[in-house]
Amino acid sequence: MTEDEPGPFRASREGQAWPADRVAEARAVIADVAHHSDHLIRLACNVLTSHGETEEERRDARALLFVIDARCPARLRHAQRTDHDDAPEVSR
């Protein structure tokens, strides 16, 4: 790969913009919540609760996360969590 080619592993100033890109993507998901899965909405809410610019944005993301979690019965959420608990460990 030459320096002129864009690529996923470039460690330049473009690599420093990824948090802002993720926040922008999370905002886009939240803006069009009716067309996204609950899982993707949860991910977007988690990004915004941690990295939102204002306290209002973080609070709204927490509120939406609460609503999304309330739509899913507790036993199903528990089953989804335990499905991943028995997954094989990945060593790096």
pLDDT averaged residue by residue: 77
CA gyration radius, whole angstroms: 17 Å
Portion of residues in beta strands equals: under 5%
Low-confidence stretches: 7-12
* Number of helical elements: 4
Number of β-strand runs: 0
**Helix-strand string:** HHHH
Describe the protein's topology.
Blueprint: H1 18-31, H2 38-51, H3 55-71, H4 74-85
Helix pairs in contact: 1-2, 2-3
Any descriptors?
92 residues, mainly alpha, 62% helix, 0% strand
Short description:
The protein is mostly helical. The protein is built from 4 helices and no strands.
Please give a structural write-up:
This protein has 92 residues and is mostly helical. The protein has one domain (13-85). The chain has 4 helices and no strands. The chain has helices spanning 18-31, 38-51, 55-71, 74-85. The model is unreliable at 7-12 (pLDDT under 50).
